[in-house]
Design brief:
alpha+beta; D-amino Acid Aminotransferase, Chain A, domain 1; 2 domains; five-stranded antiparallel beta sheet; 8 helices; 17 strands
Length: about 325
Amino acid sequence: MDAIKETHFNFPGQTSFYKGKVRDVYTIDNKYLVMVVTDRISAFDVVLPQPIPYKGQVLNQIAAKFLKDTADIVPNWVASVPDPSVTIGRICEPFKVEMVIRGYLAGHAWREYSAGKREVCGVQLPEGLKENDQLPQPIITPTTKASVGHDEDISREDIIAKGIVDSAEYEQLERYTRALYQRGTEIAAKQGLILVDTKYEFGKADGQIYLIDEIHTPDSSRYFYSEGYAERQEKGEPQKQLSKEFVRKWLIENGFQGKNGQTVPEMTPEIVNSISERYIELYNHITGEAFVKPEGTDVLKRVEDNVNSALAGL
């Protein structure tokens, strides 16, 4: 299987190139971004040595679908999706916060809660909650966007007081975040899923706020299966998840959590294939559509041709 590990394109009008953990981003005429969602995979802030075939396509197509399905709530950055693994969109100046919203006590919020904290990002949590319990209402727990290292929790009060985002715009970001999460929750429910928590990123262009980056993908969101959720909570059993948690679990079981001196376990063809199949399963469940593998094996040529064609039409 041909996977996109890295790209070295030179598109017409290209002014810069940025290589992220999993995305290769090309700037065109300082007006558009060509975002190639590669098949690189990261966990514990480490890019693993082997790419996962179709992973980039899965993430790109899920994000494209949900951006389209929420465009009536907030305008988004997308101008074109010319290839299964590529999105082209307008350049926006990103807000320096990520809007994390949680409907359930899971992941980072649960770790904070189980350590005795009853306040996350300035939001008070009630006593007596168990891991994965539904919260009385969804809470927004923003983080700062770190250019290096880990994002850090921050309260809305600190965001406004420090001038990271002004008060009126931050309140608008919160309104958008709640409306997007509500829509995502409704879409997930139709697929027998619970949207546990997710994050949104926003930017500005020409004075307009846009939704940017990806939304509702298994890399940016956590999903539970609805069926059996209540029974598992009642019995104190782990919830059945639909996220990339299975990759972290495999790494932990094999002695890797991204700490100094630890080595990534061998990614055999069997492991790589099993992760690829899980991502395709995620796609089918989240979208309710059957995943379609593109024809042909020269993936990079396909991407380049599709992008060049799209840029010529912009």
